[in-house]
């Protein structure tokens, strides 16, 4: 942790925007990143984050993907337009390959699943061109299956019957899978 703190201390601009609609997570993550040396601003909605970016574009941003008033992708674009060199990390509790690709295309440098450790967030923000290290605990086979089903479901416009047909799965089985939480 000391080496991460030193790396943050060496940054010319330590401004950081944290966007999340979960107040407890936003506050906890903001405090943890502040303790590591960042100058943190908090936002609880897309509108609040866009106002913050217009007022003073941050050098770094940690953004939630899905919020009540929109998607974090809008904020990624606003940050990148205002400050092209900004480093943006996306956080989500609904991780899937399609949204990860969309985040990276929009300009995010990394995509982390919630709950993300503050040290992992700092590592992602500071990784300069280096390939990320392989995960310590990769997704289970059940999680990979669930992610694939979620991606096909999104691509089919949340149509259960069409998704079941494309996956060669019974509709009721698919409904049961969709009703459950994501496996670890």
From TrEMBL:
The keyword Lipoprotein is assigned to this record: no
Name of one Pfam family that matches: HTH_8
GO biological process: phosphorelay signal transduction system
Keywords for the protein's UniProt record, in alphabetical order: Phosphoprotein
Domain of life: Bacteria
Coiled-coil stretches noted in the UniProt entry, renumbered to this chain: none
UniProt keyword Transport, yes or no: no
GO molecular function: sequence-specific DNA binding
Chain positions with 4-aspartylphosphate modification: 64
First and last residue of the signal peptide: none
Domain Response regulatory: start-end pairs: 15-129
SMART domains assigned: REC
Entry protein name: Two-component system response regulator
């Amino acid at each position: 942790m000391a080496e991460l703190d030193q790396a943050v201390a060496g940054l010319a601009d330590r401004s950081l925007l944290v966007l999340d609609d979960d107040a407890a997570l936003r506050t906890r993550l903001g405090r943890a990143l502040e303790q590591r040396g960042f100058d943190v601003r908090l936002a609880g909605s897309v509108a609040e984050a866009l106002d913050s970016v217009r007022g003073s574009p941050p050098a770094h941003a940690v953004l939630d993907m899905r919020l009540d008033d929109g998607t974090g992708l809008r904020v990624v674009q606003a940050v990148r337009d205002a400050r092209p060199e900004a480093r943006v990390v996306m956080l989500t509790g609904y991780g899937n390959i399609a949204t990860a690709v969309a985040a990276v295309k929009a300009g995010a440098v990394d995509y982390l699943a919630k709950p993300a450790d503050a040290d992992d967030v700092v590592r992602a923000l500071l990784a300069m061109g280096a390939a990320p290290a392989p995960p310590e605990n990769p997704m289970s086979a059940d999680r990979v299956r669930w992610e694939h089903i979620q991606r096909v479901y999104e691509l089919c416009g949340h149509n259960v019957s069409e998704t079941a047909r494309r996956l060669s799965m019974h509709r009721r089985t698919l409904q049961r899978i969709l009703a459950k939480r994501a496996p670890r």
